[in-house]
Design brief:
Strand content of chain A: under 5%
Structural class of chain B: mainly alpha
Helix content of chain A: 40-55%
Number of helices of chain A: 16
Helix content of chain B: 55-70%
Number of strands of chain B: 0
Distance between the termini of chain B: 82 Å
Number of strands of chain A: 6
Strand order of the largest sheet of chain A: 1-2
Largest interface: A-B, 48 and 59 residues
Strand content of chain B: under 5%
Oligomer: heterodimer
Chain lengths: 413, 387
């Protein structure tokens, strides 16, 4: 029988006739409320859709295409190979303007690109020895930290990136742990426990996170006074439930991640008001599905990570609409060049490519390896190192043997 | 290219040779940075080194190694100048009486440089840190300049978080909270959705201050509630204003020495503000709840008018405020501020009216499906509280 009104506005193939017995026919007619044999009946001749209805229908069709299956997405919606090629190209094209102008954060750029490749299972496309060699040339022995590039100053941000890259390639034996530990100790302010980026004195919760992550990854957790850092991070908690860059600093999703991740590294997530912060984070999602970084601002793919990882650590990822977020991130892919941009139709870059993939990984998108929300490293890397890991529902697993990071205690460095 | 640098051998970036691409800026960039690497290595302290850092920063303001070196040069040059003047004094020379002003003017010039760079590179962390270092030397004399520099940056981007953070540092260091409060009012007036301005207002109004008495705090809270209420009228869907209102209420409720009565009064006021932007009616709440719980939220009687305030209430939710609130709007809630409804739900919950709060959270789960799991979590929390 012809079944009109199935959405495409086209009728099914008229030739596909089925012989029905009387009983089946009655059941069908009862169900649809119209005679099967009468093609002139209004049921088989619905009025045409209005313009508004058409638009809604197109949108529904588009969304249906994007969501295949009950729980997941079609794996081929993610342009995996294109992203691999994009990252590879951006690391090789040393004459490109972006490359030349970003040597002050080269190691971080490498970390974003390399972790992206590992998440996609394609770390093999780069030359591991060449990269590790470059990382080691960024080591500044007089300071005990890594610079972002040769002839630059050492800084806690790039020390973390270096350790992360060496972790990816399983070359942790190259790290001078004692020297780094001494460097980190020197970065903690006596007055309030805050962490500076380097001797220049800038203070920010980002640096607290870096120091806590580094010290955990290199198994020197007490080179800084973790109790004091926890107290300082707590002071960065704001009236709206969020956290800022320093006490009084405006709540910002990026800073929230550094505080939540930092507290997790100190076993101190109980210092967070999970409901209040979880709500502030959930409110970052806009109707289009993307996430912003603070109230009344535009969504940006990088906030997919900062917000989602924080929610993950607190076991609250379900407080946002993950499907809508995934659709937003996928919509920010560049179909010609590969890579992911901050917003649909903008220029892609390695930074947003990484954070888009990392967020999709947290959501369990097929074809991407799992990532740890605290360390922002693939879970298998964290397992290899033996640090405590946080699963996708916020539970902490795999505590390291003889770990001395005890709950909230202030231990001497 | 640089005859004044003929005594220095530039150091190239240590990477394998690549074919040169004809991008115009690049030779200039490479040249400047090759000489920079040279002075970094040699540790040269000189005016030309300082000028070179400016040249490099003009091309890439985010290079913090150059900023580091620049600060080190400024300090070193100032120290050298101070030494020269001290020596001149001991020699009894009248010459360098302008030595101290010279040292300060070096920092004055540096402040002006940082302020100009802040306008060129507004999202750059380093320029603001540089300004902080200069200001620490100049002291309170730099307060006005700092406020002007940040104000100008905010003219370009009113939500520039670095500019606001720097202002926060300046205000705290030099004790300028009162003036800053007026500034935040001006910025909020310009754009009521400026979350940074709201944050700053909260920080300077309620900053840790041991001298604040309960009476003073109550007066401040009252005036802030009036302020935010007016701003909510302008844009009832403005997340920032509602967050501010919520923050003020929470702070007051959590201040240890405040009496329960006073907290209740403020809570009532907050509830009124929220209610003014909701049109939820009792009958709707009942209908919603009946579906789930099979009981009425509040007993209804035949005289209840859907468009009027509730006539009777035994559960406490709407009783005392019923007389003061304006007549409820028509039952369609599509114009309701979601933030108003969520704040009302939170207030009712914290006041102990779990039943009404649950109904509101349920409504929010339908109206705001993105965050449905949060709203149903809160609804379940109210049930847990009821026991």
């Amino acid at each position: 029988p012809t079944m009109g009104g199935d959405g495409d506005g086209e009728r099914e193939d008229d030739e596909r006739k089925v012989e029905l017995d009387e009983e089946t026919k009655k059941i069908l007619e009862d169900f649809i409320g119209a005679p099967i044999d009468d093609p002139t009946h209004p049921f088989w001749n619905p009025p045409p859709l209005t313009e508004e209805e058409e638009a809604i229908f197109e949108d529904v069709k588009r969304r249906a295409k994007e969501c295949v299956g009950l729980d997941g997405f079609a794996e081929d919606l993610l342009l995996k190979d294109m992203h691999v090629q994009y990252v590879k190209r951006s690391s090789e094209d040393k004459d490109a303007i972006e490359y030349v102008l970003t040597d002050h954060l080269r190691l971080s750029g490498m970390y974003w690109g390399l972790t992206s490749l590992d998440l996609l299972g394609r770390l093999d496309v780069v030359d591991a020895d060449e990269i590790v060699d470059f990382v080691q040339r960024c080591w500044v022995p007089e300071v005990g930290g890594y610079a972002p590039c040769v002839y630059h100053d050492a800084h806690v941000l790039y020390t973390l990136s270096a350790v992360q890259i060496l972790a990816l390639f399983d070359r942790m034996e190259l790290i001078d742990r004692d020297a780094i530990a001494a460097f980190l100790t020197s970065l903690q302010r006596e007055s309030d426990g805050a962490i500076m980026g380097d001797e220049w004195g800038e203070v920010d919760t980002r640096f607290a996170y870096c120091a806590l992550s580094i010290s955990t990854l290199i198994d020197r957790p007490h080179c800084i006074d973790r109790g004091k850092v926890v107290e300082w991070i707590d002071k960065c908690k704001n009236f709206d439930g969020g956290y800022g860059s320093d006490p009084g600093g405006e709540s910002h999703a990026g800073q929230v991640f550094t505080c939540v991740g930092g507290l997790a590294l100190c076993d101190a997530v109980d210092r967070i008001d999970h409901t209040f912060l979880g709500w502030w984070l959930a409110e970052r999602q806009v109707k289009a599905g993307g996430l912003n970084g603070r109230p009344e601002k535009l969504p940006d793919v990088c906030y997919s990570w900062w917000v989602l990882s924080s929610l993950c650590i607190m076991g609250k990822m379900h407080w946002i609409d993950q499907k809508a977020l995934a659709r937003f991130i996928l919509g920010c892919q560049d179909e010609k060049k590969g890579g992911i941009a901050d917003r649909p139709d903008d220029e892609p870059d390695v930074y947003h490519t990484f954070f888009g993939l990392a967020a999709l990984s947290l959501m369990g998108f097929p074809g991407i390896k799992p990532i740890d929300p605290v360390f922002a490293l693939p879970t298998h890397v964290c397992e290899r190192i033996g640090v405590m890991r946080t699963a996708a529902d916020g539970t902490v697993v795999g505590r390291r043997e003889n770990s001395s990071t005890t709950k909230g205690e202030s231990v001497e460095p | 290219r640089r005859p004044e640098w003929s005594d220095v051998t530039p150091l190239a970036q240590p990477e394998p040779a690549r074919p040169v691409v004809a991008i115009d800026y690049r030779p200039e960039y490479v040249d400047a940075h090759d000489y920079f690497r040279a002075i970094l290595k040699s540790g040269e302290v000189s005016r030309r080194a300082l000028d070179l850092t400016a040249e490099c920063l003009r091309m890439n303001g985010a290079n913090y190694t150059v900023w580091h070196r620049r600060w080190a040069l400024v300090e070193a040059l100032a120290a050298a100048e101070a030494e020269r003047s001290a020596e001149a004094d001991t020699r009894g020379e009248k010459g360098d009486r302008d030595a101290k002003p010279m040292r300060e003017s070096l920092f004055d010039l540096e402040f002006a440089y940082a302020a100009a760079m802040a306008l060129e590179n507004p999202k750059n962390y380093q320029v603001w840190n540089h300004m902080r270092l200069v200001s620490a030397v100049l002291g309170k004399a730099s307060a006005d300049r700092n406020l002007t520099a940040t104000k100008e940056a905010l003219e370009l981007d009113a939500k520039n978080i670095h500019a606001w953070t720097h202002r926060g540092w300046v205000v705290k260091k030099f004790g300028l909270q009162d003036a800053e409060r007026r500034f935040t009012e001006a910025m909020i007036t310009r754009d009521v959705r400026n979350n940074s301005a709201w944050n700053q207002r909260f920080v300077v109004t309620f900053s840790e201050n041991d001298e604040v008495t309960n009476e003073a705090l109550k007066r401040t809270v009252d005036s802030e509630l009036a302020f935010v209420s007016r701003k909510i009228e302008i844009a009832p869907d403005n997340e920032s204003a509602w967050n501010y209102l919520r923050g003020v209420a929470r702070l007051f409720a959590q201040t240890k020495e405040i009496e329960t009565n006073d907290v209740a009064l403020v809570t009532k006021r907050v509830e009124e503000i929220a209610r003014a932007h909701c049109s939820v009616t009792l009958s709707e709440m009942n209908a919603l709840f009946r579906e789930k719980e099979g009981e009425d939220v509040v007993p209804m009687d035949a005289n209840d008018d859907k468009n009027g305030p509730p006539s009777r209430n035994t559960r406490g939710a709407f009783s005392s405020s019923a007389k003061e609130t304006p007549p409820a709007k028509l039952s369609s809630d599509t114009n309701d501020s979601r933030h108003a409804v969520s704040l009302l739900a939170d207030v009712l919950f914290s006041s102990g009216d779990c039943v009404s709060a649950a109904a509101l959270y349920e409504r929010l789960a339908h109206r705001d499906p993105i965050r449905a799991n949060y709203w149903t979590h809160m609804r379940d929390e109210t049930r847990r509280s009821r026991g």
